[in-house]
Known about the structure:
Blueprint: H1 2-10, H2 13-27, E1 45-46, H3 61-72, H4 74-77, E2 78-80, E3 84-87, E4 93-99, E5 102-110, E6 117-123, E7 129-135, E8 150-152, E9 161-164, E10 167-168, E11 172-174, E12 177-183, E13 188-193, E14 198-203, E15 213-218, E16 221-226, E17 237-238, E18 245-250, E19 257-269, E20 276-287, E21 299-300, E22 303-304, H5 307-319, E23 320-324, H6 329-334, E24 338-346, E25 350-365, E26 372-379, E27 387-392, E28 395-401, E29 410-417, H7 419-422, E30 427-434, E31 439-443, E32 445-450
Helix pairs in contact: 1-2
Amino acid sequence: MFNHRMFMLHGDAKYVDVLERSLYNGVFSGIDLSGDKFFYPNPLEVNKEGQGRSEWFDCSCCPSNLARFIPSIPGYMYATDKNSVYVNLFAENTAEIPFNGKSVVVEQQTNYPWDGNITLTLNPLEINDFNLKIRISGWAENKVVPSNLYSFTNQTDKRLQISVNGKPYHYKTEKGYAVVKNKWKKEDKVEVSIPMTARTVKANPQVEANIDRLSVEYGPIVYCAEFADNNGFVSNQTITADTEFEVEYQPELLSGTNILKGKSTVYTVVGNSKEITEKQGEITLIPYALRSHRGAGEMSVWIPENPNIIKNKYLEAYRIVDAVIVSNSESEKAHNLQGFKTNSGGSASGWRDASDGGWFSYDMQVVQDEPLQLVLTYYSHDGGNRFFEIFADDVKIGEQKLRSETFTAFIDRTYAIPENIIKGKNKVTIKIKSIPGNIAGGIWGCKIQRVSL
């Protein structure tokens, strides 16, 4: 709505570019294909636990906004000023547009966003002298967004083509619009062809999380790799800026969608070791908005280009001796959860805390002859009266007081486990105990790992 109002104020296509990008990749991803399940967050990567939509939320401002926003989309398709009719969004429709006290009927025939061919049929019922302004999408002009936040890794010289009644039309541009001037008559046809290819995207280097990673876009659509199309894993593959993707429309998949297929390099750990092999593979991508309809598993928008991202992740995984998926009933049961005055939240993964002298504990595996440490994960906005002690087999190994930070992140803290506690054992009991009048946690992650490789 903000970008629509900015467009109405300035008549600049860049605001509609942002509206379109948000619509296809943000709004539509928040609702299930069935229309009755919703996301709050839109993470760009999830682990093997996946992310499932919910039927409702206790505080449901976002789902109710969807119910308001989606029926309002027709109002964003077209606009007018005293001289022009603007075509802002592309979708199959017929619209009667009020224009200077009269009306114009425009019919769109298109398969957009799966291809860039659009046919506009005009029926100027009461007026025929106006400019037709057709938005030239920013991505068709080598601009991912109207800033330097993202950029394509290569440029294209292909441009939007227009014909009027079968004859090529050489248009001028104004504020991101192709201006078509004509004395319109009934059934005039304007054919628009927007070149679409799959293109790799890089982030501004100040976005540290995306350094040495690439995403892939096709037209206005942001794509992702999901486990269901990639042998159960996506976090083990790299692509390059030169990776070429084939586009294939699959009518039976996710109510009909374009998928992208390209070459990748696949990395695999040999057994329970530090040896990593690599081989050529194929990566399949689907629109990000269509993720999380086929069970729980890995998903990623930003795919590594640098293989060291994957290799270092594997080496870090080798350090882990044991880990609890906090608030996951199966994982907590497997680790013999015990506790008093303890609560948890979340489903596949979440948090656990204990209050006013309460506690909780897990039995966790250890190994001999290697220095070990406990790693607990906290949320940066948890603060206040959060003060607690940490024990290993009833020996205090640390205490923690949490404070609310000004940034949003998960924070790992490490606590050395003395060798004499581990000696001769294959398990120890990790206990988190709140100081009376305080809260222990929330704990969002709990693992024992080797101090070094």
